[in-house]
Amino acid sequence: MTSTAAAAGGLPVAPAAASGGSPVAPVVPARGVRRPLGLDEVRLTDGFWARRQEVNATGTIPHIGHWLDREGWLGNFDLAAAGRLPEGRRGREFSDSEVYKYLEAIAWEIGRQDAAGSADAAAAAADLDARFRDVVARVAAAQEPDGYLNTKFGRPGQEPRWSDLEWGHELYCLGHLFQAAVARRRTRPDADDGLVDVARRAADLVSDVFGPTGIQSVCGHAEIEVGLAELGRALDEPRYLEQAERFVERRGQGTLADIEWGRSYYQDDVPVREATVLRGHAVRANYLAAGAVDVAVDSGDDALLGALRDQWASTAARRTYVTGGQGSHHQDEAFGDDFELPSDRAYSETCAGIASIMFSERLLLADADPTEAARHADLVERTLYNVVATSPADDGRSFYYANTLHQRRPGAPADPEVVSPRAHSSLRAPWFEVSCCPPNVARTFASLAAYFATADADGVQLHQYAPARIATDLGGGRAIALAVETSYPADGLVRVRVDAAPGDAWTLGLRVPSWADGARLRVIAADGAPVEVQDAHPGQIAVARVFAVGDVVELDLPVAPRFTEPDPRTDAIRGTLAVERGPEVFALESVDLAGTALAGVDLADLVVDASVGPREADGRVVVTLRRRATAGEPMIAAEAALVPYHEWAERGPSTMRIWLPTS
Amino acid sequence: MTSTAAAAGGLPVAPAAASGGSPVAPVVPARGVRRPLGLDEVRLTDGFWARRQEVNATGTIPHIGHWLDREGWLGNFDLAAAGRLPEGRRGREFSDSEVYKYLEAIAWEIGRQDAAGSADAAAAAADLDARFRDVVARVAAAQEPDGYLNTKFGRPGQEPRWSDLEWGHELYCLGHLFQAAVARRRTRPDADDGLVDVARRAADLVSDVFGPTGIQSVCGHAEIEVGLAELGRALDEPRYLEQAERFVERRGQGTLADIEWGRSYYQDDVPVREATVLRGHAVRANYLAAGAVDVAVDSGDDALLGALRDQWASTAARRTYVTGGQGSHHQDEAFGDDFELPSDRAYSETCAGIASIMFSERLLLADADPTEAARHADLVERTLYNVVATSPADDGRSFYYANTLHQRRPGAPADPEVVSPRAHSSLRAPWFEVSCCPPNVARTFASLAAYFATADADGVQLHQYAPARIATDLGGGRAIALAVETSYPADGLVRVRVDAAPGDAWTLGLRVPSWADGARLRVIAADGAPVEVQDAHPGQIAVARVFAVGDVVELDLPVAPRFTEPDPRTDAIRGTLAVERGPEVFALESVDLAGTALAGVDLADLVVDASVGPREADGRVVVTLRRRATAGEPMIAAEAALVPYHEWAERGPSTMRIWLPTS
After folding, report:
1. CB B519 within 8 A of CB B512
2. Chain B: residue whose CA lies nearest to A576
3. Is residue B1 very low, low, confident or very high in pLDDT (cuts 50, 70, 90)?
4. Model ipTM?
5. Which domains does chain B have, with CATH numbers?
C-alpha cells in the first residue's frame, strides 16, 4: 500500500531542516512543499502570543501538575507500579492521557526555553527537566514487560486489555504518549530519561496487536493515528506509519458498535476517503483527519489527501463558527448538520479547536498552492485567537471547556478549589472531571512558534504574525535571519526586517488574511532605493529579490472594525451581525453597558444599529445599540463598547453575545 | 399543614359529579370552581380525535402489549414472582412504569368502550378486560408482602430499595401504578382484579417509608406526587395527599445529589413555591408541577397555586415552542433558558407535551377566571394537535420521542422490527430503549374526552372542540345533553345543539382560542326567534339562557391560514414566519416541492414571500417560496403546499421546517 501509492504520486520529499536534523516542531512530514520552522528557528519575543506563552509557562503548566497530583491521575501510575490497582485508581478511563499531554507541554516548553538562550531560561529549563524526568520515571515504572501501558485495563480486577475499544481509550492514551515522546525527541534528542523507549515499546506492541493479523479494529477516540505517524517520523520507523495507515483505512468499516448517537460519533460510519465532511464528535473527527493527512502525505496517497482537503473545505464553510469553533452539540460533543450553528448551544470545545488547528496546519504544510495554504492558515489564526486564547483565564489557571457564543444568564463564579463536573459552566473552571482541555492548551501554547513560519528551497513563508525572531537556513549555508516587529492584532502593520540573508535571490512569502481587503505591501530597501508599494490581495503574497541586510518588508493589514454578515443558511443567527477587527471576534458583554443609557437592559432586548458601522473610540470597539421597542417603554439608544471575545468573562458574572440582532 | 391551609383559603369544594360518584376522568380535584366531565359524560363521536382514539384502540394499545412482551418488560414481573431476578431482568430501571401506563391506557379504553354502549364496544371492552386482568395478576404476583413493588431493586443481587433516589425511579414507577389504579377505580369501580389493592398497599408503604419520620428525600423523577394525590382522591384516603404534599415540599431542598447538569435537572434546586419558571428535565418539571397543583388545590394552598400559575405563564411565554413543545436540550432532555428555542435542536419530547397538558389541565380546573382557563386550554389544544398528535404515525405503531421543528437531512426509515436506541431519530420508531412515549400517548388518547368539557353549578363549559355527545347533570336532576357538530379544525364552525335541558336558566361556556380574532357567536333558538349574533373575543364566552331542546349555539372561528411572527427575543427563528391555521401548525416538507419549479431545491435555500399571505388551494395551505439568490443561479419562485406538522414524515424520508426565513 505505502510503497505503491508513494511510487504513483504524492508530494516531493520535504526540504531538509537547517541542521540536517528534524525541525523542532510537532509535525514534520516526510513529504511536502515546505517544512515547518521549529522552536529553534522561530522565537516569539513579545506581544499577544508571547505573553500567553509566558502565562502558560508560569501559570498553566504548574497548575496542571498540581491538579494531576491532587486528583491522583499521576498517582495512578505509582499504584500500577506498586501492584495496587485497581482499588485505588482515580479519574476517568482516559486520565493517563492528561499526564502525557502534560509531559508533551513540558517538553515543548523546555525547547522554548532552550531557544531563548538566557541564563534565566536555562534555569527554567533545568527545573522543567527535573519535573519531566520525575514524571517519566513514574510512567515508565507502570509499563508492563511487553510494552503495554494503561492504568485502567488489563490487571486482575480490571477489564481485559482492548476489551472496550469503543470507550476504553487505550489507544487514544498511547497516541498522546507518542506525541509526548516526539516532543522530547525533537527538543532534547539526547535525553536519557527513557520516554522515547517507553513509547517505542508501546508502539511496537500496538503494531503487533493491531497489525495485519491482529485485532482488525480501531479506537473509539482517534489520536493513535497522529501519534504513531509522528513517532514513526521522529524515530525513522516505517512500521508506525504503516500501522497508522491501517487504523485510518479500518475506520468507517463499522467495526465499532453502533451506539445511541450512531457510528458517526467515532467516524466509524464512512471510510475516511469516502467522507465529504467532518461529523460526529468534533475532537475525534479532527484528530482522525489530522492523522489521515499524515498518512496520505507520507504515503503519497493523493486521493486520500484530496478527500481530506474537500472535507476541510466543507467543514470550514458549513460547520464552523465565526470563532473557528467546531461542534454544535452538547449531547455528544459533536458537529451538527450543515449550517446548524446555534450560538447559545455552541459546544465549540477547546480541544476541538486545537484539533482543528492540527488538521489545518497539516494541510498547510502539504499545500502546493500558496492560496490554499493561506486559507488553512486563516482558520488556524481564527481558531487560535477566538477559541484557544478564549479558553484560559488571564492567569492561565482556569479554563473553558466549551466556548459558547451566547450567554443568556450570568454564571456563578467557579470555585478555584473545586473540580467542575460540567463542561458547560459559564465561567472558567480550574479543573474538570474530564480535563482534556487544560493540558491541550498548554502543549499548544508551548509549541506555538512552530505554527508561524515555514521554509522551502526558495525562501521563507510567514503564516502567522507576532513579534518574532526567525533564523533558518535554506540549505547550502544560505542563512536567513528575520526580525518581525508588529503590534498585531492591535495594529495591522507587520514589519519584517532582514537581519541576515544569502547573497542570492530568495522569496519572502506573507499571508494576507481573507478579511484583509485593501492590504498594502511596501519594500523598503536598506540602500535607500525608492520604496516599492503594491496592493496585497488575500492569499499569499511573495516578495522575491536579493535581499540585503537591513531591507524591510512592511505588510499593512486593514484592521478597522467591521460588521460580518452570517451565511443566510445559518438559521440561528439570521438577522444579526457580528463585529470583527483583524483576526479577533468581538462580543457584547453586559458589564459594558454599565455607565451607558442602556445599563441594566437585558441583552435580549438590544439591537445593533446596522447603519452605523463599528468604530474605535478610546482604544475600544464601539457600536450603537438600542433597546427594542416594547409597549410602554421609551426607545433608548447608546454607544457601547464591545470586548474581544477571548477577553470575555474576566470581570465577574455577565451575559454575552457575539451575533447582534439588527431589528 | 393541610388542615390549616385549607381553613385559611383555597377554592370551594368542587361540584359533585352527576352520578354523585367521581367523574370518570384522570384528574378529579377535591376543590375547584368546575369539575371535569368524564368519559361517561363526553363521548367523541367522529373527526380528528375520534379517529386517533380508534387507531389508539386498534393499533397502539396492542402494539404496546406486543413490545412489552417481546422486550421482556412484562416478563420481569413473572421473573420476580418466580424468584428468578435479577439474572433475567430486561430493560431499563424504569421499565415497570411502561407496564403501568399500558394498564392505565387499557383501563381508560375500557371506560371509553363502556360509554359507547354498543355490542361491538362491549366485546372490545371484554377483550381488553381479560388482557387487563392477566397483566394485573402478573404484576400483583411480584408485589412483596409489605407492599413493595419494583423489579429492579431490593432482591439479593440487586441494589437495595431506595438506595438510588436520583436515578432508581422506584417512586416514579409507583406513581404510574397509582394512576393506573385510579383509571381502573373510576372506569370499573367494582372490578375484582385487585389492582387497586396492589396500589393501596404500595401507597401505604411509601407513606410509611417516606413519611414524617422516614426518608426525608424525593424521587429523582417526579410522578409519585400526581399518583399519590389522585389515588388519595379516588380512594378518599387523605394520607396519600399528605404524602404527596411532603414530596412537593421537600423538592428543592437539595436532598438529591448534585450532578453534571445541576440539581435543576430534577427540580431539586429551588423549592416549588419559590420557583419562577419550569426548568431542568421537561417531563420531570411538568409532572412535578401537575402534582404540586393537586396538592395546592386540595390543601387550599393559594400561595403555592399562585406560584405555579406564574411558573406556567412564564414557561408558556418564554420556554415553549410554537407547537406547544417544551424542552430545548437533547443532552438532558431539558428546558433551555428563556427564549432558547432552537428549531433544529428542539427536543420537545412527546412525554413533555403530555406532562405539560397535565399541568395546564389541572390549572384550568382550578381557574376562577374563565379567561385564565381559556389560556390554559389554549396550550392544551396547541400541544395536543402539534405534539401529541405528531408523535404517532398514522397507523399508531411508530412514534416520535423527540419532535424536532426543523429536519435538515432526510432520515433513514425506521425498521418496524428494531428497537431504536435513539430518541432523536428523524423517522418514527416502533419502540425505544427508553420507551416512555408510546404508552403515554396511549393513555392520553384513551382518556382524551375528559379534557374537553367541564361543569359547574351554573352550566357546562366546552374547552376543546370535536364532534361529541355530552350528557351531564348540574345537580338536582338538572340534566343537560349536548351534541357538538363540527369539522374542526378543518372548518371553524362549531355547532352545539341542545338535546336535553332543565327548565331553568343555565350557562353554556365556549372557549374562543387566542388566535381566533373575529370569531362570531350565533344563538339559533328552536322556537324560530331571530338569531342572536355577537362578536366572540378570545377567552371564554358565556351564553346564559333558559335553553330549549333544539336550540343551537354556533361558534364560528376564523381558521384561515395565517403567518405567525416569532418573539424577537427568540434568536433561533429571527427573520422567519410560521404558518398556522386554527390550532394547527404547518410545515414545509421537501416532498411537497416535487412538481413545482422548486423541485429538488434544498430547504435551506428557500425563503417565503412574506408579502403574499398563505392561502388555501385545493384543500391545502400554500405559500409562495423562492430560491435565495446565489451567484450564477436564476431566481425561482413557486407556490408550494405546506403540511400540517402532525402529518409530516408520513411520505418517506424528507426534510422539513416550520419557521420559514423571509429573506
Report:
1. yes
2. B574
3. very low
4. 0.89
5. 45-250 (no CATH), 264-446 (no CATH), 453-556 (2.60.40), 569-661 (no CATH)
